[in-house]
Amino acid sequence: ISDRLRVFETSLKGVEFALKNLEDTTNSQISWEVRFDRLQDYLRPIWSLYDRWVTYVEHRATLEESTLIDMAEAVVSHHPMSSHSLIWQAHDVVVPWADGVRLGLFEHLHQLLKKSSNICSLNMSPQQYMYALYKLIMTTEVKAFSMMTFSWMLLREAGKGNFTKEVVLATEARENRMKEQLDAVKLNMKGLDTYFYRCDPNVFIEGKNYWQDPSRRYDYIQYESGQFFGERKECETTKVDSWWRWFVHCSYCFCLCDDPGPRSDRYFSLREVTAIPGNIITGIRLEKVDRVFHIRIQEGKILRGGEVDRETVRWTEVQGFKLSEAKEDQDYSVLSFEKRAMDLDDLIAPRGYVVTGVKFRELGMHLGISIKVAPADFSTGALREDMAYWFDNGNTDAMEQNPRERMTLEEPDVPTKSVLKSRIDSAPDTFIEFQPSSMLKDVAQTTVPFLDAQAVSPKGMTWLRGIGLYHKGMT
């Protein structure tokens, strides 16, 4: 029990702070804060007493009997601050009243998460928050029950009574509490998102939280008619004017240029990126090495109960390569005017499977992702890597039934100019093409969309069932 508790305690680091600081502008936040504060008032004394209790148990052979008896009585007495009393008071906050007059804590959290305006700011998926609250309560239940049963044993050894009936009643009460709490969390888990993605950073830094093609030829174009393309500002470099040749006036025309030169980074690695045996993927990000975009993974050792051994979690190094030493369409994919589509998908593993690998894949003229999944036993943490397989979404825009749909960017500006936070505006089973920015807003000088380089790694360190590609912007 002690080892299992240590695993739970490690996974719960920061959970109270995260739960306490859920942001919302509705009355749901006020209701949540009041009730969560009350829960903490009941749980914290149990955790504090448990730490002292463990120390006393470890040194029980050298402690005075009166000290042990005093500690045991403090645990199982009917005083309002005993563990015996506190765990019931916590349960009263967590579980709704039978007559429906008062909601339970899980219901309040569910309402707050459903009304949250920006899921990406949560640092975990909504379901992770709900499960984290449940783990916090269950861990406290285990601590309290362990102290109570051991305390009655100490009191029995000291000749203070038999306490057999007390243990039986406490066991039955604990089972009833846990059943009611499990029913409540299951009910409120339904309808909550399992997705986690990153918000826009407060400050855009190229190479750190986004990637782009920085080369541009023009800042703006101004016509004699007064029409203006691009951002109006002072010309700090070379000014170019239209010209006459005999009786012909040459004005500026637009054309799309596909220039695969040394300053055009249009390469995506197709090589597999997998976790080492016994590990699963816990995070993912995009990195550019030697002009090639790679998927980089965070991995950690799988544990039972949806947990990950935090001491083993690490970001793997990108296995880069020189383009001159690799094969096109085997080691890497090259974007071109004809081949510039990116498939947007949410790849979700079957129930009972976890993600152990990821890669970019080519399907016709489209680029997309594929994930490797393997069965995992929730109760034991056993990973069946011999049954792992790769899968992706093989739907295309050429299908007769339910073809993949194109997502069109209307007059897109440079993404980093926006002062507003972008939101997901794409849907799964669609695709988007890399294209020039708006002629009107940016003189078509920037290739969009940009690539988000932020790490996507839920704070809770849990098993991942899927990975997706999406577009976010401001409609």
Radius of gyration: 29 Å
Helical residue percent band? 25-40%
**Major pleated sheet:** 7 strands, mixed
Would you report the number of β strands? 24
Distance between the termini: 52 Å
The computed structural class is: alpha+beta
Described by the principal axes of the CA atoms, the overall outline is: elongated
Quote the beta fraction.
Answer: 15-25%
Number of domain units:
2
Count of separate DSSP helical elements: 9
Low-confidence stretches: none
Written overview of the protein:
It holds the Pfam family DUF4803. InterPro entries: DUF4803. Helix 6 (105-115) runs antiparallel to helix 7 (126-157). The chain is built from nine helices and 24 strands. Strands 7, 12, 14, 15, 16, 17 and 19 form a seven-stranded mixed β-sheet that branches. Strands 6, 8, 9, 10 and 11 form a five-stranded mixed β-sheet that branches. The relative contact order is 0.11. The protein has 475 residues and is α+β, with helices and mostly antiparallel strands. Strand 9 and strand 10 form a beta hairpin. It has helices at 2-11, 15-20, 27-58, 65-76, 83-94, 105-115, 126-157, 164-189, 439-442, and strands spanning 210-211, 220-222, 228-230, 243-245, 248-250, 267-269, 273-274, 279-289, 292-302, 308-315, 332-334, 341-344, 346-348, 353-363, 366-375, 389-391, 405-407, 423-424, 430-433, 435-436, 447-448, 451-452, 466-468, 472-473.
